[in-house]
Amino acid sequence: MYMRCPRLLGQAQHCERITGSLRREVLDRMLILNEHHLRRTLTRYLQHYNTARPHQALAQAAPLRPVPDPIIDQERIASLTIRRRERLGGVLHEYSHAA
Hints:
Layout: H1 12-25, H2 35-51, H3 74-78, E1 82-87, E2 92-97
Antiparallel strand pairs: 1-2
């Protein structure tokens, strides 16, 4: 059993959510070699989480990136080129429109 600070009621589920996402998306798929490797992995995952990973609560935007304008032109939709970048040795993938 652990004690929680009364001012932080409601914060436990947010911590559990990001911890679960980190475990499922990264830690279950990688062998962490040492503390330095763990810190580097966590830093890169948090950068991905805040700048590239879509969040349902934010209408598929990332916390530090606004939702892009929808593309409604059919010709432009037909000619879209998607670029994929691998992160953390291929464990994570980031997708973007190729310019």
